[in-house]
Amino acid sequence: MNPLSIAVSCGGTGGHVFPGLATACELRKRGHEVTLWLAGQAVEVASVAGWDGPLVTIPATGLAGGMAARGRAVWSYTVAFRRAQAELRTRRPDVVLAMGSYSAVGPVLAARLAGVPIVLHEANAIPGRALTVLAPLASCVALHFKAAATYLRTRRVIITGMPVRAELEAAAAEACREAMGSPSADSRFTLLVMGGSQGAVRLNAAVIEALRLLAARGAAPAVIHLAGPRNADTVREAYAAAGLAAEVVDFCKDMAAVYCRSDVALCRAGAASCAELALFGRPAIFVPYPEAARDHQRANAFSIEAAGGAWVLDQKSATPAVLASAIERLGADTETRRQMADAMRRLAIPHAAARLAEVVESCGGRKSEGGGRKSEG
What confidence tens digit (pLDDT) does each residue in 257-281 have? Predict the structure, then answer.
C-alpha cells in the first residue's frame, strides 16, 4: 500500500500538542507522510522540539477574555480558515486529524469544504466547544472518556484512549509487569504533587500547608513536587519557610521514573494526567481546576472516582486540613491504595496512539498500490 499524506492539527495547548505529536510519530513510523499544523502559540515551541518533519503554522487564538478578545479570536478563525485553504491547495492531504481546541476550527472547516476526510480527537469527559460544533463534520470522533459521546452529534464514535509518548507508554508497561514502585510495608509513602499550569498557586499553597500540618504530627510523606519552571523557585521557598523537605522539580524529563517512585498523586484532573496515572496504576487525589472550560476537569475526575481509582475534592473544600486528612488516610492504608491502583490500571487504554492511527488510516482510505482508494465498506 502507498503511504497516506496526513495533516495533524494539534496546536493551542500542551494538552493537544503532546497527543497529536505522539500520534503523528506513530503515523510516520507506519510509513505515512505527516505534517503538523500548529497555532503559533509559545507553548508549542518546546512541545515539538524533537519533531523533524514538516510543520505549518495556522495562526489562531482562543475565545477566553472580554468582548474585544473574543472579537480578535473570531477574526483569527477567519484568517486560519484562509491559511488552511491555501495550505490544502499547496499540499492536499488524504485526511486531517484534529486534536480539538480552537486551533482546529480553521483547518477542519477548510478540509470539509475541500472534501478532505476529518478525524477529531477529544481527550476530556466533556468535549470542548470547538469540537462539539465541529463533530458533525467529521468522518469519526475518537474519544478517551466514553462519557464524552453523549455531548456529540456525529456519525461515528470510537474509544481510542489518550495518546502518550511511546517511551512513556513503554515504561508504564514495564512498571506494571515488574510492579515497580508498588507500595510496601518497609518503604516510605511518597506523594507526587503536580501543581499544574492552571490555578497552580492556590493548589501549591494548600498542599504545602497540609504537609506542614502532617509534619507537626509526625506523619509527613516523602514528596516529589512538579512545580513547573514559572513556579519552582516560589514553591522551593515555601517549603523552606515551612521547614519541610521536598524534591521540587521545575521541568521533568523522565516522568516514568517519577510515576514509578510515587504511591499517590495529588493534582488537577487534566486529560493527560488522568491517562498517564491510569497507565502507571497510580491512585490520585484530584482537585479539579474550577475554571476549566465547561468544567471538564471535574467530569474527568468524577469519572475516575466512580471507577474506584481516585478521590475527588473540589477547590473550595480542599483546605489544608482536608488535604492533610486525605493524604494521611491513604498513606496509612496500603490495601485501599492497592485497590485504587488496580482500578486505575483497569481504566488504562494502552496503545492509544496506535489505535488513533488506525482510525486515521481507515478514514484516509488507505490507497492501494495502483493508486486507488479502498472503500471503508
Answer: 999 999 999 999 999 999 999 999 9
- In this prediction, residue 66 has a pLDDT band, given cuts at 50, 70 and 90, of low
CATH 3.10.20.740, domain 168-347, yes or no:
no
Dihedral sign computed on CA atoms, order 71, 73, 79, 81: negative
pLDDT in tens, 294-321: 999 999 999 999 999 999 999 999 999 9
**Three cell numbers at 57?**
503554522
Yes or no: say if 298 and 288 are a contact pair by the CB < 8 Å rule: yes
Residues of the chain with CATH 3.40.50.2000: 5-162+350-364, 168-347
Contact 101, 134 (CB under 8 A): no
Which grid cell sits at 67? Answer: 468582548
The closest alpha carbon to 32, from 374, 361, 372, belongs to: 361
Confidence at residue 377, expressed as pLDDT on a 0 to 100 scale: 31
CA angle 266–102–119, rounded 5-degree value: 95
CA–CA gap between residue 37 and residue 57 (Å, rounded) = 6
Q: Specify the pLDDT at position 195.
A: 79
What is the pTM (predicted TM-score) of this model? 0.91
Q: Which CATH number is 5-162+350-364 given?
A: 3.40.50.2000
C-alpha cell at 302: 468524577
**SS3 state at 29:** helix
Q: How confident is the model at residue 123 (pLDDT cuts 50, 70, 90)?
A: very high
Q: Which three cell numbers mark 76?
A: 483569527
Q: Are 185 and 334 in contact (CB under 8 A)?
A: yes
